[in-house]
Specification:
The chain is α/β, with parallel strands linked by helices. Helix content is 49%, strand content 8%. It contains 22 helices and eight strands. Helix 9 links the parallel strand 7 and strand 8. Helix 2 packs antiparallel against helix 11, helix 5 crosses helix 19 and helix 19 packs across helix 20.
């Protein structure tokens, strides 16, 4: 019986971290039945930035993607990342939106909801927890791991206690920037298992700093039940550790064996290596180990955003200054974990502070909202001087931010208009009004080829097709019925063994 489960992240966080979330559903479908046969604990396939990217760049319906994936995963649970009161968007939505979203996500095929809040404010998790439970989904309460003078094992443990009280079915330590050291992994996992011995604990680490494999090993030795990995073709750097590596390493310990077969994973990696080549122009180029993250704490995806902002102003050479200022802004704002959307808020403000030469001379609306409590309570209090500089005479709120939001769904149906054909369309419009509208118009107009697809096809023409190790593995550059049939055959072969 496997002692440690593996959640595969290739078709969500793997390509989000390395390929700007540009992988198309058509490149996932040929591999899904083989992935289903491998024996993963779950397959992360939705949420995070994928919803936005589907509408904005790929001209895909994210709800259709979920249904297509679910129809091919007969044995393996689906898993998604949900931003608490932000759902899959970048602002707080009214409770009726969060409830409707969770209900429709379960209806369309989602099983496990990893629910987090960017500030670790559990008040922002209450509605999503309740909605997922009522819809029949699995609630995974999530701790966003970060380091600061105010973040301690005791504080994280207290957050876990509250999430268990709220009805969490499992707990997750989410290390989005690769900051979880091996010793801290041991300490935190041991504490969570001690406090909640019957609760499944999962670890999600990024490989940015080089810590993650060591953190995973210490974590599972301390009682962690499941770890997140990405198939090697989409692993390393700012993504997760390689699935095959962890499976092979743990296979030597009968108490930690994952039960997964290495050969099947190697064949799967071969397919995704070909897929990755198709998206070469979206490569992050943040490869290998970046030890600097241990100081500035900026996730890899955010660094690329900062570089883009500086490049637009012909100031790319000032990145080091911005990273230093980023740490100061984070301290000023109460040490928020740097994860969407707080990472973007802190990073953009740091860029403005450096380029204008005056700290908080220009303040973004999002920075004001964060300082004003509109995103929730920060881990540390914000000094009166900083509040005065950012907010003037405005006083921060201390209640749950969503308490100020009126129901949105009925008005959203009116705003979406006749272009929205389903309740799912209305939710897409609520989350991303302009990208959803453009997608609906494109769909209404006959679904002509969009720029991202044309670019992918052109890219594929210049990629040499990789040699295949077995006739059961399809060419990653082909997406026709033949490739799907080949993977179905491969999946059936795996099930027969």
């Amino acid at each position: 019986m496997p002692k440690v489960g593996i959640t595969e992240t290739a078709i969500r966080d793997g390509h989000q971290s390395l390929l700007a979330t540009r992988m198309r559903t058509e490149d996932m479908i040929p591999a899904l039945e083989a992935m289903d046969a491998i024996g993963y604990h779950s397959i992360e396939c939705w949420g995070g930035a994928t919803f936005d990217s589907c509408l904005r760049f790929l001209k895909e319906d994210p709800w259709w993607r979920l249904r297509e994936i679910k129809s091919r995963l007969k044995k393996t649970p689906t898993q998604m990342l949900l931003r608490g009161q932000n759902a899959v968007g970048y602002r707080h939505y009214a409770d009726d939106v969060v409830r409707a979203f969770c209900d429709k996500a379960v209806e369309n095929g989602m099983d496990i909801f990893r629910i987090f809040d960017a500030l670790n404010d559990t008040r922002n998790l209450e509605t999503a927890f309740d909605a997922v439970k009522k819809a029949g989904g699995h609630v995974q309460g999530t701790i966003c791991y970060t380091t600061s003078p105010v973040h301690t094992v005791d504080k994280f443990a207290a957050m876990a206690d509250r999430m268990v009280e709220m009805g969490a079915d499992s707990l997750c330590i989410k290390d989005m920037a690769g900051l979880l050291s091996p010793m801290m992994a041991k300490a935190l996992v041991s504490r969570l298992k001690k406090d909640h011995p019957g609760m499944m604990v999962q670890m999600h680490c990024h490989d940015t700093s080089g810590y993650s494999e060591m953190a995973y090993l210490m974590g599972v030795q301390s009682g962690a039940d499941v770890i997140d990995c990405a198939i090697s073709a989409l692993a390393g750097g700012t993504s997760q550790p390689a699935t095959e590596t962890l499976v092979a390493a743990l296979a030597e310990d009968p108490e930690l064996n994952t039960g997964l077969e290495l050969h099947s994973l190697i064949q799967l990696a071969q397919y995704f290596r070909g897929v990755r080549r198709k998206y070469w122009r979206f490569e992050s180029n943040l490869l290998g180990v970046d030890s600097g993250v241990l100081e500035h704490q900026v996730p890899g995806g955010m660094i690329s955003n900062l570089v883009g902002q500086l490049r637009e102003q012909n100031q790319e050479a000032r990145l080091a200054e911005v990273l230093e200022e980023n740490a100061r802004v984070r301290a000023d704002l109460g040490y928020p974990p740097l994860v969407t959307p707080s990472s973007q808020i802190v990073g953009t403000q740091a860029v403005l502070n450096v380029l204008t030469g005056q700290r908080y001379g220009t303040v973004t609306r999002e920075t004001r909202n964060l300082a004003g409590g509109q995103y929730g309570q920060t881990a540390a209090g914000i000094s009166d001087d900083v509040l005065k500089t950012i907010l003037g005479e405005v006083k921060p709120i201390t209640h749950r931010p969503a308490d100020d939001l009126a129901p949105e769904m009925e008005q959203a149906k009116v705003d979406a208009g006749e272009l929205a054909k389903t309740d799912e369309d209305v939710l897409s419009h609520v989350m991303f009004p302009q990208p959803a509208k453009e997608f609906f118009e494109w769909r209404e107009g006959g679904e002509g080829p969009e720029r991202e697809l044309v670019a992918a096809v052109i890219g594929a023409l210049f990629v040499k097709e990789p040699a295949t190790a077995t006739r059961a593995v399809p060419s990653a550059a082909s997406n026709g019925a033949g490739s799907v049939d080949s993977w179905r055959q491969f999946g059936r072969m795996r099930q027969m063994r």
